[in-house]
Amino acid sequence: MRKNSVAALASFAALAAWITACCSGAEPTPDAKPSGGAAAVQQTAAANKHLYIFYYSKEDEMTQTARKSLEAVMAKMGDAAQWVAVQKDDPAEKALAEKLQLQTFPTPLILALAPNGAVTMVGSAVDMPEEKLRSAIAGPCEQKCLKTVQDKKVALLCAYDKNVTAEDPTVKVVSDFQAANAKRVVVIRVDPSDPAEARFLKQLGIDSKSSLTTIMLAPPKVLLGKFNGPVAKTSLVEALKSADSG
Amino acid sequence: MQLRTLVWRELFERKNQLATNFIAILLGVSVIVSVRNITVYSEKAVARELDALGANVLILPKSASLQTYYSADMQTEELPEEYVARLILSDLQGLDNLFPKFSTQVSMGGKKFTLTGILPQDELKAKAAWKGGDVFARPPLCVGDAAPAEPTPTKETQFRRRAIQKLDKAEALVGSEVGAALKLKPGDTLQLEGQTFSVSTLLPETGTVDDSRIFAHLHTVQQLAGKGPVLNAIEVVGCCKEISKGLVQKINTLLPDAKVVTITQIVETQIKTNLMMAQLSWLFLGIIVVVGGASMANYMYANVYERRREIGTLMALGAGSGIVLRIFLLKALLLGLGGGIAGYALGTLLAVLLGPRIAGVAVLPLPWLLLLAVGVAVAISLAASYFPARRAARMDPSTALRET
Q1: What is the pTM for the complete model shown?
Q2: Is the ipTM of this complex over 0.90?
Q3: A105, A109, A130, A216: which to substitute to probe chain B, counting the most B Cβ within 10 Å?
Q4: Which residue among A162, B323, B353, B393 is buried most deeply as judged by most CB within 10 Å?
């Protein structure tokens, strides 16, 4: 009799636990797959590739023409990037659309994502020139800078050549400054002679032969200060203050 | 018998005629006072908006009706929020500040308020920054060339410039009238439709519909209203007047399904309305002078004719022509004074009640209009009564007494 009672209680407890698990909105099981767009984001991030998201609402002539243009360019870009089509009303893509605020953009749209999740370009897919699509491919340093400012932090880009060591006074100033503003400032070091970063550094006005240039970048995409040569802490502090004045 | 007593008795000798003339003056003066009162405040509102807004563009749904600039986004027609991104992603110059708005009605404490959703500039700028291309919004600065740091403008100033920089999803900016009605101060919390908001700013009085609104993050308000990404209007603050002149056509091309109007067009309409009202008030004045004066003169002449025996008796008893003249003029003066004061009171009341409905502006009493009202009423009364009074004063007592 007693054994039967215990067994009944155990069964009841198991049933209650199962019902609770069903109703708790538990995390999807490992077998659940992300949507096509989200899967593409994960896949390209893992493969260190850029992803072009083709966001559209309906399959009309304009969308089909824009899609064909994108396909043609992607075919030429080879392994540098991939692309995925995301339909506006697809419930499976809702999470991705909300994360990137895609529903507030006109369609058809092309949005380029770097492997680290930074948005490198967004624009109308209609008549988008190939040059603009290719310009969305960002080097590692540019990706980090963009990700930093898009995370609403300040990027301190240190374009120091190999001869600048940790003992350099500027490196110490930068390190101390970052420590004092750890929640807000991210230090990114780059070699000015790195050919992969040539385009980005040229945009910033950094010569490939320069040895010690410090640049402060703030959200949304603002250059707060550029310091050639040794930099004083007060200069960095003043530049950071100007970020608050909008 | 004193002059005062004579005049008082004269006034109430013909009560019906007295009432008719009094009402004529009262109505005429009240019309002038109310029209002038509304016109003054409407002109002030226009001047204020021109000073504060500069070159401004309003984007509305095509089918929306334009009433006034600030209440225009209370219509129920909607625009897709993607229009904002279209503007941002375009190459149009002069689109310095975009101010998308979506409004819904909310209840609190048994009262209804307008909750307006707006987007902070940091989110708009972030979207603009995604465009790609050039990295910088400002030219690079070298050491020693750092620009002087400007103090961060207050949220009130940011709001006035239609450029709120940051706005949390649960943050609220409260208009002056709402703040006063609910006795709110910064730091208080608001419960609106089940959502808790933190009041960060009490906005200063602007004299516009913004005073009676609560402002919060656009997406929060859309969610509370059960709507998707839609707007009622987009305000565009252009960077300079020259650009805004050509901006309307370019925006029209970019957004063919929207109605695009400039503040100049809206204000021109309002200026024309103000001018029309001002001209109307002078027209009414002219009509009142002619009609009211003629009516008063007719009343006075009739009064003199009917009272010729009493006038004759008075003069026979020793009253000089000066006394008789003064009696009638004093009577006219009192009528004018009474009509002017009552006309000012009625006209002011009409302006305060009807001003917000007619001109869309809050109207307050203007003390100097009392001087105008009384001045006009007294001038008409005296002018209309002068000749009849002079006729009475020149009457021959023996002739008057014989005519019975």
Answers
A1: 0.63
A2: no
A3: A105
A4: B393
